[in-house]
Amino acid sequence: MKLSGGTRGYTIVEVMIFLVVSAGLLVSVLGVISGQQQKTRFQTGVRDFESQLQDTINDVETGYYPNTAGNAGEGGDLKAGDKIFIGKGIQFYKNSSTNELTSWREMVISGNTTIPDPPGEPKDVTTLSEATPTASGSSVSHELLNGVVLTSIKYGTAGTSSFGIAVVSGISSDGKKSSGSRGQLAYLDISSVDNEGFLDSAIGSLTDASIANASNGVVFCLSEGGGGRVAAVALGLAPQGAGIVSTGQKNISTVYFDDEAKNNFGCTS
Questions:
Q1: C-alpha to C-alpha distance for 268 and 264, rounded to whole angstroms
Q2: What are the average pLDDT values for consecutive 10-residue runs of the chain, which has 269 residues?
Q3: CA-based angle 146:184:131, to the nearest 5?
Q4: CA geometry: angle 265, 268, 269, nearest 5 deg
Q5: Residue 147: count of CB within 10 angstroms of its CB
Q6: Beta carbons within 8 Å of 128's beta carbon, 6+ residues apart
Q7: Residue 125 forms part of a structural domain
Q8: Residue 212 burial by CB count (10 A; 0-12/13-18/19+): exposed, middle or buried?
Q9: pTM of the predicted model, to two decimals?
Q10: How many domains does the chain have?
Q11: Which residues pair with 114 in a beta bridge?
Q12: Within a domain: 3
């Protein structure tokens, strides 16, 4: 077909080809944008958990615990004066609505200031075992955000796992929390994720050995629900060569994503 002036128009086939190519490019661009948005959303959710975990460690190191409602408050029996603030415990469990491992609760850990040794002559506690740790007050519940799901909590380079962890402070010779004490990680033996009812008893089983069992650091492995992205939030562990090594800085969290989390820490989706 000739147009006035000798200019040739587009055929229907050419127009269709143009539309198909344009639609393909649009779909590709939208896919890239959507993928980047999902990646950013996942990373934001992981960073949010890391921030809350670091807040818990900081609370223990500064000796902070909520205690606004007397013995019934978050600090439990600490206000009565016959207990000391030892730290905080964390337990992960499945969300009852989604059945995904996205829920976690945090609880204050208290302990005795003295032990009856010998009877009638109380002795100040100097170790975690002597303090007889106890879950104190009510717990605070949290949720992982943006589709982030916990896959495991790994202890040290040996790969011992659990679904709980404690952060405890040092105890001085006068039975009080050491001023400026750095938070120590402690192993909480929690193997079930069906409900939140295991934290109290796990805290009650804390001993000096619990600290030793977490002495090489801890890694929280996280994944993207319904996606392939993974992340590792490491405390006191860092990649080196083909493996991981203990850094000794268990009060500082570091986040690793995707290949670093998979290859160095063994985190999977």
A1: 11
A2: 56 77 69 72 96 92 61 46 85 93 94 77 84 89 95 81 91 54 86 87 94 91 89 91 81 92 89
A3: 120
A4: 150
A5: 17
A6: 86, 111, 168, 171, 186, 206, 207, 208, 210, 211
A7: yes
A8: exposed
A9: 0.80
A10: 1
A11: 124
A12: no
Q: What phi-psi label fits residue 156: left (phi over 0), alpha (psi between -120 and 50 degrees) or beta?
A: left
Cβ neighbour number for residue 154 with a 10 Å cutoff: 23
Structure tokens at 95: 């969300």
* pLDDT recorded at residue 83: 81
Residue holding tokens 């991981």? 244
**Token pair in block for residue 210:** 């619990």
d(CA 122, CA 139): 31
> Which two structure tokens, joined as six digits, stand for 43?
């990373």
Residues in CB range of 235: below 8 A, 6 or more apart:
53, 57, 185, 217, 218, 219, 250, 251, 252, 253
| Range(s) of the domain holding residue 25 | 10-265
Whether residue 164 is contained in a domain is answered as yes
Residue in 57, 77, 55 with CA at minimum distance from that of residue 67? 77
| Paired tokens of 162 | 């659990």
Rounded to the nearest angstrom, the gap between the alpha carbon of residue 77 and the centroid of all alpha carbons in its chain is 27
Tokens describing residue 29: 């661009």
SS3 call for 158: coil
DSSP state of 183: P
pLDDT of residue 239: 86
Per the domain annotation, does 27 fall within a domain?
Answer: yes
Neighbours of 253 (CB within 10 A): 18
Helix (H) / strand (E) element for 243: namely strand 243-246
